[in-house]
Amino acid sequence: MALKPLALFVKHDGRSARASITCRYKCGDACSHPVPNTSSGEYFGDIVAAAMTRRGMLKGSAVAVLAVGAGGVLAACDSKPVAGPSEWKVDDAPVGTRFTPIDPNTEDAVVIPEGYEQAVVIRWGDPIFPDAPAFDFDDQTPQAQERQFGFNNDFAGLLPIDGQPNTYLLVVNHEYTTDEFMFKNYDADNPTLTQFQVGVTAHGLSVVQVRGETGSGRLTPEFGPFNRRITANSEFVVAGPAAGSDFLKTTADPSGTRVVGTFNNCSGGVTPWGTVLSGEENFNNYFGNYDAVADETAKARLKRYGFKGAASERKWERFDRRFDLAQEPNEANRFGYVVEVNPWDPTSTPIKHTALGRVKHEAATIYVTGDGTVVAYTGDDEKFDYMYKFVSSRKIQPGPGQASMLYNQTILDAGTLYVAKLSDGTGEWIPILRTGDDGRGESLVAGMTADEVAVFTRLAGDKVGATKMDRPEDFEPNPKTGKVYVALTNNDARGEDGKPGVDEANPRVANKNGQVLEIDDDHAGTSFTWSLLLVCGDPAAADTYFGGFDKTKVSPISCPDNLAFDDYGNLWISTDGSALNANDGLFSVVLEGPNRGETRQFLSVPNGAETCGPTVSEGRVTVCVQHPGELDDASADNPLSHWPDGGDSQPRPSVVSVWKSGGGRIGL
Ligand code: FEO
Ligand code: CA
Ligand code: CA
Q1: By the 8 A CB rule, do 547 and 557 touch?
Q2: Using CB atoms within 10 A as the burial measure, which of 411, 449, 591, 633 is most buried?
């Protein structure tokens, strides 16, 4: 039967509005370069055709999307922000979301709801040790930077300190550097040694003690005993099946077990045992001289991870051979892991957990089943890449104490790694790698060794026919319900000639606004059901869906990225690269009851910035404001944002806290 195209599948021009300079530095221009996943697998024309003929019976709410009808106009075609409702009812919103949403805007400010207050917690360059110098934009040194808060904060965890009320460890990822915004007169063709060294030390993570204030949500940094900087120069130990693998051996580390550095740490998660997981994401763009790699097999594997070209963007390969693929082709195999940091011991060596595979990990987040089995969910953030989960064979050890802390840090080193395959409202976790108690891997993929699955995990996903998603970002279980949510941020290449078309979970071609998937998972098992919670974009457009909620009563949302939950079980979503002509922001979304899908914008970040790492507690919301003012015509020589310090100051990535005036609960 010939199928009539629906408006849903009409191709729109454009992509997310992320500035091209952000793409260059953050993800190595992943948007404008060939999609690394060229594997043939199962594609979707057939699935969608099937969905359209069976739509009344489907659980997957592509059904609902299909049912919204044609005729919506994409307001993003003009340059005004797509507006939400002009009036809001506050009192009848579900608990936790009772605030008057802000209007979408392009202010050079963090905009928050009426009746709320805000303050910067910490900025790039702020000292985190007593001996650190004050930040001096015009005189940066690596010695100073490694004692100061790093650049481009992404994930943030707030871990309460036992016995010290209202005091926390703030653990933050510093995803990437944008040298044009860090140094005046920066010459991208000829960076200096100092700029290289500052860049290396501005990456990694920070651990900073912060103290709350009675009656507000303000947080003030302190020189606490746990304060720590981890950088691209810090030592990591490799755990799991790839430890000692030939693929990880280099001149500097013939053992293949000790790695210097972490970088492009995007999002993360706090474990129930009190450590922090951090995803090494777009690691490919730190390495130069891909073109010079002689071994064709190695080169093909690198290509699958997006490696390309001769010089890298930052030219780090000129200063340190570990970034030069021609000299150290295996160094690249030592990045792309989930790393675990114990913030309670500043002398601890962070761990790279290879049993969770090597992909562009957005994050890793934990669900614990009734018998103590640990399930770690993680997405691979690239167009047409996959969703994974790891199920431990070890059980979590409860209680404080050094012994259980050390044991629990081995939980992610024994168990089974799965990749997701979705069909019409159901799905299957396909096992690809089993790691035993002795740390040895067993490949579950024909034609690949265990080492290969652990280190070239994308190739394993290709072989087993995993479902090609629209850039899986944060992947988080709801602590209230156990349902799991995945932000699929966008994929402007879906439906292009020679690329996969739509399927039920990725229902739009040239998808510039993204969607959020809700998964009911048999956590330790291999089956799940799913539906689409949100299909983001202009609520007035036919191709958007807000959980069935009245679309005239929601805030426009685009490019969902990081996810968090409040104490009431509402989902909070931060965005990256809104394609609706407005600054990125943080939104609450009701998940249960008659208001399911009700979406309200709580805050927006300054122009050019991305909202990251939200935490939502009873009395405080925090967000990381990443790359404020990072616009294509801007630089340190021509700053177009002066946030947060105003005047003619340079923009500085910072963490912000928001609370209700006079104290009280957020959203009540
Ligand atoms: Fe660094 Fe997937 O965003
Ligand atoms: Ca992200
Ligand atoms: Ca992002």
Answers
A1: no
A2: 411
Q: List Cβ neighbours of 245 (8 Å cut-off, separation of 6 or more).
A: 256, 451, 454, 455
Q: Is 494 exposed, middle or buried (0-12, 13-18, 19+ CB in 10 A)?
A: buried
User: Is there a contact between 576 and 584 (Cβ–Cβ < 8 Å)?
Assistant: yes
CA-CA distance, 381 to 378, in Å (whole number)?
A: 9
CA 301 – CA 304 distance, rounded (Å) = 5
CA distance 90 to 98: 5
pTM above 0.85, yes or no: yes
Tell whether omega for the bond before 644 is within 30 degrees of 0, i.e. cis: yes
Q: Identify residues whose C-beta is under 5 A from ligand 2, the ion.
A: 266, 473, 561
From the CA of 175, give the closest atom in ligand 1.
1
Across the strands, what pairs with 475?
486
Q: What is the DSSP string of 267-314?
A: EEEE-TTS-EEEEE-SGGGG-B-GGG---HHHHHHHHHTT--SSS-SS
Which residue has its alpha carbon closest to ligand 1 atom 1? 266
CA atoms within 13 A on the CB side of 275: 27
How many CB atoms neighbour CB 385 within 10 A? 29
Residues with CB under 6 A from ligand 1: 175, 266, 281, 362, 381, 473
**Residue range 4-55, pLDDT digits in tens:** 222 333 333 446 788 899 999 999 888 778 899 998 754 333 333 333 333 3
Ligand 2 centroid – CA 360 distance (Å): 11
CB-CB contact of 633 with 178 (8 Å): no
Please give the radius of gyration of the chain, using alpha carbons only, rounded to the nearest integer: 23
Report which ligand 1 atom has the smallest distance to the Cα of 26.
1
Please state, in angstroms and rounded to a whole number, the distance separating the CA atoms of residues 284 and 408: 30
510-534 per-position pLDDT tens digit: 999 999 999 999 999 999 999 999 9
CA 379 to ligand 1: nearest atom: 2
Closest C-alpha among 438, 446, 452 to residue 248: 452
Rounded to an integer, what is the distance from CA 205 to the centroid of its chain?
Answer: 15
Q: Give how far Cα 164 sits from Cα of 172, 210, 459, 572, Å.
A: 20, 11, 47, 28
Q: Which two tokens stand for residue 179?
A: 């040298």
**3 state SS of 565:** strand
What is the dihedral sign for C-alpha 194, 25, 365, 441? negative
Count, residues in the chain: 668
- The rounded Å distance from CA 413 to ligand 3 centre is 27
DSSP state, residue 185: T
Among 298, 321, 336, 530, residue whose Cα is nearest residue 423: 530
Å from CA of 24 to ligand 3 middle: 13
Three-state SS letters, 138-153: CCCCHHHHCCECCCCE
Contact 410, 239 (CB under 8 A): yes
If you write DSSP's letter for every residue of 457-490 in order, what string do you get?
A: HHHHHHHTT---EE-EEEEEE-TTT--EEEEE--
The amino acid that residue 393 corresponds to is S
How far from 80 is each of 581, 582, 586, CA to CA, in Å? 6, 8, 19
What does the CA dihedral 609, 610, 612, 616 come to, rounded to 10 degrees? 80
pLDDT digits (tens, 9 = 90+) for 345-384: 999 999 999 999 999 999 999 999 999 999 999 999 999 9
* DSSP run (H or E) holding 18: none
247 phi/psi in degrees, rounded to 5? -65, -20
User: In angstroms, rounded to a whole number, what is the distance separating the alpha carbons of residues 171 and 204?
Assistant: 11
